[in-house]
Amino acid sequence: MTQSVTTADGRQSPSIPPWLRKTAATLLTVAVTILGLLFVTFMIGRVMPIDPVLAVVGERATQAQYDETFAALGLDQPLLVQFGIYLRDVLQGDFGRSIRTGQEVATDIARVFPATFELATLGTIIGVVLGVPLGVLAAVRRGSWIDQIARFVGLIGYSMPIFWLGLVGLLVFYGILGWVSGPGRVGIFYQGIVEPITGMLLVDSLLRGEWDVFKSAFSHIILPASLLGYYSMAYVSRMTRSFMLEQLSAEYIITARVKGLSEWQVIWGHAFRNIRIQLITVIALAYANLLEGSVLTEIIFAWPGIGQYITTSLLANDMNAVLGGTIVIGSIFVGINIFSDLLYRFFDPRAK
Amino acid sequence: MTKKYTFVALALSALISGAAITTASAETPPNMLVIANRIDDIKTFDPAESFEFAGADVSRNVYEKLVNFDPLDLDAGYQPQLAESWEISEDGKTITFTMAEGHVFSTGNPVTAKDAEFSLRRAVMLNKTPSFILTQFGFTPENVAETIVAPDDNTLVLTLDKPYALSFVLNCLTATIGGIVDMTAAMENEVDGDMGNAWLRTNTVGSGPYKVVDWKPNESVLMDLNPNYGGDTPAMERVIVQHIQESATQRLQLERGDIDVARNLSPEDVAGLADVDGVKIVDELRGRLMYWSANQKNDMLSDPNVIAALKLAADYEGMSGSFLKGQYTVHQAFLPKTFLGAIDDKPFSFDIEAAKATLAQSAYPDCGPIKISVRDAQERIDIAQSLQNTWGQLGCDIELIVGTGAQTLDRYRAREHDIYLGAWGPDYPDPNTNAGTFAFNPDNSDEAGATGLLAWRNAWDLPKLSEKTLAAVVENDTDARRAMYKDIQTEFQNSAPFGIMFQQIEQNGMRSNVENFVAGGATTAVSYWVITK
């Protein structure tokens, strides 16, 4: 049903429904954010004191080959024109070709992003499943040995460099104990067996019914995912503890206890219920950080993810690849923010 | 590798050294070779375009050439491969190849002279970076129809613009760009007149022992046997090269038996593997040289006595015996050992008193400010710091300008450096590859823009040496040619504003049952087809 409002001069005009206005505003924000991100990244890439032409033609190229490539890359155009051309291509779905891999950037990203997505998702699940209960327990048993352990675990997670823990984990669990498989996504005997569906090896091997591949892939992912999960857990448990302590000291908790509710109901039914909204933001941020790509973890575990892809491309001045990766990462951040915003509305009646 | 990663590698090396790897459960199958290597430099498999180390490793095992090296006897030089014989005309300008029989592409098509004609022509016409290896003989996109001709399926005729040493031409044909591709398959996949270039970047159609069946950039290359290969069937039916960035990770995999060969081990990890059962280290001299060079636009650095003093004030043995131990050996000539005409003379050793005396004879007895331009690679920074220390003892005020590879290279190509510290590897296995850049500069003007020539980059005008270098490429008597390069190098050592310091040693770790692993020496790339386990 179309609504109308009366304007100052008394005429009736159709009003825009609030949901449509909000959606339009959100889309506009997303577009401006990504456009700004693209512009800044593009300009940084162009003003960096390294030569993209040399990255293509190599040290041995003649001046004629250099000049030809310079023009072919469009570098003879003004910067804004270059950006305009790039933007036009991106809007048509063309991210250009990576000079480092020789392949379309979109193809590269479609190959590397699922690897990071799979790793980050598993890492986040581990972090949340362990971190939230640990944080709640630490708050409820404040000052106890559980609290001390939780704080110690969090401290280690914050202070220990991830590459160090990764290497030690690899040495102990792969090198010495042999409990997990080594670097890479899957054992060499299983490479290329599973035809990609989602690009996530765990999922694809299940969908294809390839149990041996699944076991090998799981054996490869569990160590880096646990490592990332540990860092997520450290962050999530610390924040959960902090949120819970605030709630547990609130008057309504005393009231609940006075009313004779069980401790379980008090903690999970009242206190925890009220920190869900804050936790959503915390978990979303932790997840987004892992999706951005844990470069060092990917390098140590030879995990061909987007973090390693962007970093290596940046060092090689492969700007098409860097920009393509930036768009993906930027979109993910924006997407996760929108998603957490929606969840916020779902859980918080006031936001509705 | 950045400092951070180096720290990581060192840290894990220290850890591994203290912890015994007791579980060696895995073992690769006897007919499969698994290699850990840094392969993130592979951009293309097209032999007309490929010019990177890891790409050359693949290409050598996938594409055959008219002439090629026997991996088990590299010193023998080029041998017949797709061409069974060749003749050179009396005027020295025409080489006629007779094709060998029995070579078949992985597609099933037989290799003919028409394929060779197509492959060499397209390499010239595509004009990619390595094309200079062929165009230096006068081939141009405009004249290849007349200069590279296959009158029939069995004969290929190359017509050069002037007489060259036959060994020079044939050595160049052993380079990656000499790989012969299947014309039919390439043209079936041609797009916009690219002669199959885009398709051949990710697909291989050679007649070599292997074919690439899967390539995931930055991840792995998988090669299977070419079922139509004309030679003896290789023992390794499948070769997998995994991209493993970290030395420490490669070492762990090697110790556990998950890989057969580790190709990027740090000195610390090599030392740590010395006493490990089931693992061996194989050293191989490669062609890469480490050198410094002085810009002759700088007045002080154009004084021969200053240059001589700097050469005497470098601690060659100290560096090769410490942080470069096992990775580089002292070498002071521009031709790597094992090249035709290479010399092993080492006229310079660290002698600070002699260096000071030499500097005193110059117009700059107190030396002065010198900037060393060096890229952010650990071994180069270590060398630069050593030079900073010992040259500092001469009274020079040394400043290190550390930058990315591209930054330092930009400055070098623009002739804006004082001292450049860098590395140089041969492009093809002929002495002219280095003589033609270190000791050749026909036009020293800025306008010449000869950025490919190291002598030009350092603004070094050397008309007589340039003439000698030109004379050496047309000398057909191999012994005489060898002598000419020895003479050029001796003169170069005495007069050049270049300080050649080291030649690379590649230390590959491998399981003790791996035999015949040849990384390619100074002249070529790795050969998987002779490896056994």
| Number of helices in the DSSP assignment of chain B | 19
CATH top level label of the largest domain in chain B: Alpha Beta
Tell me the count of domains of chain A: 2
By CATH, the architecture of the largest domain in chain B is named 3-Layer(aba) Sandwich
Number of strands of chain A: 2
Instruction: Give the proportion of residues in helices of chain B.
Output: 25-40%
Form type of chain A: globular
Greatest chain-chain contact: A-B, 53 and 60 residues
What profile does the largest beta sheet of chain B have?
11 strands, mixed
User: What name does the CATH topology of the largest domain in chain A carry?
Assistant: MetI-like fold
Rg calc of chain B: 24 Å
Structural class of chain A: mainly alpha
Strand content of chain A is: under 5%
Describe the overall structure.
- The complex is a heterodimer of chains A (352) and B (533).
- The two termini of chain A are 21 Å apart.
- In chain A, strands 1-2 form a two-stranded antiparallel sheet.
- Chain A folds into 2 domains: 18-91, no CATH class; 105-351, MetI-like fold, CATH 1.10.3720.
- Chain A is built from 14 helices and 2 strands, in the order E-E-H-H-H-H-H-H-H-H-H-H-H-H-H-H.
- With 352 residues, chain A is an all-alpha fold.
- Chain A is globular and about 85 Å long.
- Chain B has 533 residues and is of the alpha+beta class.
- Chain B has 2 domains: 2-244, Periplasmic binding protein-like II (D-Maltodextrin-Binding Protein, domain 2); 285-506, Dipeptide-binding Protein, domain 3, CATH 3.10.105.10.
- In chain B, strands 1, 8, 9, 10, 11, 12, 13, 14, 15, 16 and 17 form an 11-stranded mixed sheet that branches. A 4-stranded antiparallel sheet of chain B has the order 4-5-7-6. Chain B has a two-stranded antiparallel ribbon with strand order 2-3.
- Chain B starts with a helix and ends in a 22-residue tail after the last strand.
- At the A-B interface, helix 2, helix 3, helix 5, helix 7 and helix 12 of A face helix 1, strand 8, strand 10, helix 9 and helix 15 of B.
- Chain B: Belongs to the bacterial solute-binding protein 5 family.
